[in-house]
């Protein structure tokens, strides 16, 4: 899974594999190891893309699926 | 219509020349070049992060909207990513249309989108460290003009 912008700085990583069957499980796994990051990922304005498509709410994840957490976009 | 991200400095003049070539039916080409400002030394460098694939797709979708809305013949967008020094070009937009009004307006529309809503994350490196930049109120209201 991928983190961008300030989320990556906060976590201290930008890209790593994580095993989870759906988005809720992924969020729970991340929050369990880093509570502050879990909170930041759930904050308003943070969007989630699954295989480069924005999703709202829950999504099932298969092996090899790319999940990205996107903080508010700043424009160029 | 082409949209490209690059982590290397680019020469805007060469892009204009290439964009204008072989256009028998184009009456107007409007271009915009955005440069990185030094902010009187407050910004030693700008760092732009994109999500490769996702960012180009999002920009291409809005470029396609601009093609239809302003009856454009062509659009070219080149955007820098990575670390950008003051004075370097960050963004290049060119629009081609039969007449000037559509070309100007489309260029303005695309820049308002690129400055406020495009999927980039922007960090400014200055003398007091680095900070993430969010769109300004002005960027937001500029973009809302087209809604």
**Outline type of chain A:** globular
**Largest sheet data of chain A:** 4 strands, mixed
Largest sheet of chain B: 4 strands, mixed
Structural class of chain A: alpha+beta
Distinct helical segment count of chain B: 4
User: Helical amount among residues of chain A, as a percent range?
Assistant: 25-40%
Strand content of chain A: 15-25%
Number of helices of chain A: 3
Which strand order spans the largest sheet of chain A, edge to edge or round the barrel? 1-4-2-3
> Biggest interface in this structure?
A-B, 15 and 27 residues
- Structural shape of chain B: globular
Radius of gyration of chain B: 16 Å
What can you tell me about this protein's structure?
The complex is a heterodimer of chains A (76) and B (147). Chain A has 76 residues and is of the alpha+beta class. Chain A is built from 3 helices and 4 strands, in the order βαααβββ. Chain A has a 4-stranded mixed sheet with strand order 1-4-2-3. In chain A, helix 2 runs antiparallel to helix 3. Chain B is an alpha+beta fold. Chain B has helices at residues 12-20, 54-69, 100-116, 137-144; strands at residues 2-6, 28-35, 45-50, 74-80, 82-84, 89-97, 120-126, 129-133. In chain B, the strands form 2 sheets. Chain B has a 4-stranded mixed sheet, with helices on both faces. In chain B, helix 2 (54-69) packs antiparallel against helix 3 (100-116) and helix 3 crosses helix 4 (137-144). The longest helix of chain B is centred in the last third of the chain and has 17 residues, at 100-116. Chain B is globular, with a radius of gyration of 16 Å. Chain B starts with a strand and ends with a helix.
């Amino acid at each position: 899974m991928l983190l961008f912008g300030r989320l990556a700085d906060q976590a201290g990583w930008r890209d790593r594999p994580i095993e989870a069957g759906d988005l809720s499980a992924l969020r729970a796994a991340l929050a369990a190891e880093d509570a502050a990051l879990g909170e930041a990922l759930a904050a308003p304005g943070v969007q989630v893309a699954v295989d480069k498509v924005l999703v709202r709410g829950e999504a099932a994840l298969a092996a090899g699926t790319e999940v990205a957490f996107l903080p508010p976009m700043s424009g160029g | 219509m082409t949209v490209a991200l690059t982590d290397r400095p680019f020469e805007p003049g060469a892009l204009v020349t290439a964009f204008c070539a072989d256009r028998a039916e184009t009456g107007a080409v409007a271009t915009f070049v955005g440069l990185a400002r030094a902010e009187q030394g407050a910004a030693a460098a700008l760092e732009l992060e994109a999500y490769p694939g996702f960012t180009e797709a999002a920009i291409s979708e809005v470029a396609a909207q601009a093609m239809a809305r302003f009856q454009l013949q062509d659009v070219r967008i080149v955007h820098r990513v990575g670390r950008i020094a003051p004075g370097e070009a960050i963004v290049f937009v060119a629009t081609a249309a039969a007449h000037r009004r559509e070309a100007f307006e489309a260029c303005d529309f695309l820049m308002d989108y690129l400055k406020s809503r495009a999927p980039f994350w922007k960090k400014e490196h200055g003398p007091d460290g680095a900070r993430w930049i969010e769109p300004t109120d002005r960027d937001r209201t500029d973009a809302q003009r087209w809604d």
